[in-house]
Structures are given as structure tokens and as C-alpha cells.
Specification:
The protein has about 325 residues and is of the alpha/beta class. It is about 25% helix and about 25% strand. The chain has 2 domains: about 5-200, Formyl transferase, N-terminal domain (Rossmann fold), CATH 3.40.50; about 205-315, Methionyl-tRNA Fmet Formyltransferase, Chain A, domain 2. The protein has 8 helices and 15 strands. The strands form 3 sheets. Strands 3-2-1-4-5-7-8 form a 7-stranded mixed beta sheet. Strands 10, 11, 12, 13, 14 and 15 form a 6-stranded antiparallel beta sheet that branches. Strands 6-9 form a two-stranded parallel sheet.
């Protein structure tokens, strides 16, 4: 029986681990993460899945430590798989898998290597993304591709919705190619490094709205950081606010020097500095959700105008933990 050690976390880790088991792969050891107390945990638990299947799971602080390398070696894996594990694995770990060490990445490589690929793809207005199974090497996400599956990003999809699609794409990708991988006949397609892009992890300030941008760009940011992520943030008359859901009403409306909120026909809209009109479908001010009528009353009471980018004045928020 083929043996594999799995490094996994998140929904992709859960689903891909189950694919291995469904195909009869023996998994003697899983390395995962402890959930961070500062992160909103909205996704499935690899540790819980291991408990349900009677698989030994550990969550070391350093997967490349000598004692962890020894435990992986003792498991005698044919393959090593990384399914949304958040740490790079050292060459000494990868070398323990004689038949290959492979990673499932949440983009259509070579585009969007690195961290938070789903969120970055939405921010850049991509019409599609997907999941790619590839061999691991010394650099992140640049190894030969075995298989990939694309999914659409619809104009109003938020990150959580796209991540559900990417999870399914990851499961389908592994399910389709695993028989060939086990038989030793799966393809290895070198990536076109000239077409690659790389993005790092996201920080709280990345969620601050720059009102000088277009309605489309701001809408993409709102979608990319919508709950369960921290949300797109701004200040309205000095009060912390989050735009949680938006829609572009008119992308070609000319730009304005001083963007302002408007309320008409029960709608909250913003004519944006970079052009276009944005409808605000869900707005939170001072930690309370407000509709159009409530916002009209609030605005009258506060004589609210829309500020530009706030930056350092922006209220503190928990770090964005995107995958």
C-alpha cells in the first residue's frame, strides 16, 4: 500500500486528506497547525478529521525541526503532500518522500504564487482562479505542475464563496490525477516562470479603502476581505466603519474630486474618486449594521462626509489571516 505523510490545514486540508483515504493511500502521520486564538476559525479542522479516522496528528511550531524530520522519516512515506499548510517545508523534509513531495495551491499557477491567492485574485479583478497540484522545491509554488482545475470568479463573489469553489477544485484535481500519480504516470509540466506573479500575506492596513480609486477597484477590495475576513474599513466623520457588501452600479461614471455618500430610493451609494458609482449593500458603523434609513438619520446627526484614505488613523483590527 502507498504511504503518505500529510501536512495540512483548512478546508482544503480536510477534503484532500479524505481523497487520499478514499483512494486507499495509507496516512500514518499528519502535521497540522493549532488554531490561532486571534483568528476567526470558519473552516474545517484537519485535527478533528484525523481523530475521526484514527490518524496520528501533531501540530509542531516548527515542521522543519530535527525531531519532526525524524518522525516523518519513521513514517516511511512514499509521498509527502502539503494541503494548505502554512509553512515552507525544508529540503530535508521533502527528501524523505522518494516518490515526490507535492503541494496543493489555491490559484492557477504560475499566477498568484505565495500567500492569500484567493484574496489577491479577487482584488485584481480576475475572472477565474482555481487549484494546482505541483511538486515542491526550494522556492514557494514554483515546481512542476501535475494538474490544475479552474473555477469562475463572478463579479459579486466574495472571498468565502470563491474559497468554497477552490476547495472543490482542489478535491477534484487530486481525485482525478491521484491514480496516475500512484501508478507513476502523472505528468510533470514545468511552469512558465515568465508568466509568474507572487504575493505575500495581507496586513490590516491592506483592508483600508482608498476612496481615490474606482468603484470597481473598491468593490473588489470589499469582496476580497468581506466576512469572515476583517472587512474593508474606513472612517466616516471620524467613526470606524466597514463596508461588508457592495455592488458596482455604474463603472463608467466620471471621477469626482471629493467622493461623498448619497442616499436615494432606499439605497446608499458612493460616487468614487477614480470613477464609477458604488452601492453599499451592507454598512457597519461603530460595530452596528445600518440600513439606508438609519444611515440617513446618522448622517444628518453627524453631517458626515466621506474621507479619503485614512491610513494610520484607521482603528486597529485583528490581522488578516488569509490563505
Amino acid at each position: 500500500m502507498t504511504r503518505a505523510v500529510v501536512f495540512g490545514y483548512h478546508n482544503v486540508g480536510v477534503r484532500c486528506l479524505k481523497v487520499l483515504l478514499a483512494h486507499g493511500v495509507e496516512v500514518p502521520l499528519v502535521i497540522t497547525h493549532d488554531d490561532s486564538p486571534g483568528e476567526t476559525i470558519w473552516f474545517g479542522s484537519v485535527a478533528q478529521t484525523c481523530a475521526e479516522y484514527g490518524i496520528r496528528a501533531i501540530a509542531p511550531a516548527d515542521p522543519n525541526a530535527a525531531d519532526i524530520i525524524a518522525r516523518v522519516a519513521a513514517a516511511r512515506p512514499d509521498f509527502i503532500f502539503s494541503f494548505y499548510y502554512r509553512r515552507m517545508l525544508a529540503p530535508a523534509v521533502l527528501a524523505l518522500a522518494p516518490r515526490g513531495a507535492l503541494n496543493m495551491h489555491g490559484s492557477l499557477l504560475p499566477k498568484y504564487r505565495g500567500r492569500a491567492p484567493v484574496n489577491w485574485a479577487i482584488i485584481h479583478g480576475e475572472p477565474e482562479t482555481g487549484a494546482t497540484l505541483h511538486y515542491m522545491g526550494d522556492k514557494p509554488d514554483d515546481g512542476d505542475i501535475v494538474a490544475q482545475t479552474s473555477v469562475p470568479i463572478l463579479p459579486d463573489d466574495v472571498a468565502a464563496e470563491v474559497f468554497v469553489k477552490v476547495t472543490v477544485a482542489a478535491e477534484l484535481t487530486l481525485h482525478r490525477v491521484l491514480p496516475a500519480l500512484l501508478a507513476g504516470t502523472a505528468p510533470r509540466i514545468p511552469q512558465d516562470h515568465a508568466e509568474s506573479s507572487y504575493f505575500g500575506g495581507r496586513k490590516p492596513e491592506d483592508g483600508v479603502i482608498d476612496w481615490s480609486k474606482s468603484a470597481v477597484a473598491i468593490h473588489n477590495l470589499v469582496r476580497a476581505v468581506a466576512p469572515p475576513y476583517p472587512g474593508a474599513r474606513t472612517l466616516i466623520d471620524g467613526h470606524p466603519a466597514r463596508l461588508l457588501r457592495t455592488r458596482v452600479l455604474g463603472a463608467t461614471v466620471p471621477a469626482v474630486m471629493a467622493p461623498v455618500f448619497d442616499i436615494a430610493d432606499g439605497r446608499i451609494t458612493v460616487r468614487c474618486g477614480g470613477g464609477g458609482i458604488l452601492e453599499v449593500l451592507e454598512l457597519e458603523i461603530d460595530d452596528a449594521i445600518v440600513g439606508a434609513s438609519a444611515f440617513a438619520q446618522w448622517r444628518a446627526a453627524h453631517a458626515a462626509a466621506l474621507p479619503g484614505r485614512i491610513g494610520a488613523q484607521q482603528p486597529a483590527a485583528a490581522p488578516d489571516q488569509h490563505d
